Amino acid sequence: MAANIKLAVITPEKTIINESVEIVVAPGVNGEFGILYGHAPFLTILKTGILKYRNASGIEKIAFLNGGYAEAILNRVTVLAESAERSPDIDEQRAREALNRAKQRLSADHSTAIDYERAKLALHRALVRLKILQSSR
Fold first, then answer.
1. In 1-137, which ranges are continuous DSSP H helix?
2. Structure pTM?
3. Which of 34, 39, 70, 114 is buried deepest, with most CB atoms within 10 A?
4. What does the angle CA 104 – CA 99 – CA 97 come to, to the nearest 5 degrees?
């Protein structure tokens, strides 16, 4: 059995995850990366995506991340995210409604580039949440 690392996922509102884990796999802006015990220290930017980790009991878990930063130092991974949700906390109906709203906005007149970009980001967040729900069934 490998040594564990401490994972903390923190949003402006609260701490979402704070536990000992075997491995963390996160969505970096330059691609997905993994962290195990003894990893070299680093700091990176995260994109919206799926955070995967295996807890100290060997159980695979996933969570939604909406951007942020990750720091690996001294066998500890700290994620500061704009928002995050553990898979059991994702509201499927809310995600589907967000998906439909984003699709409607994207199919409408693109009168402002900002609204179009916001709609694309909202669409991506909804799709990631639904993908998490689908994979956890």
1. 92-107, 113-135
2. 0.88
3. 70
4. 95
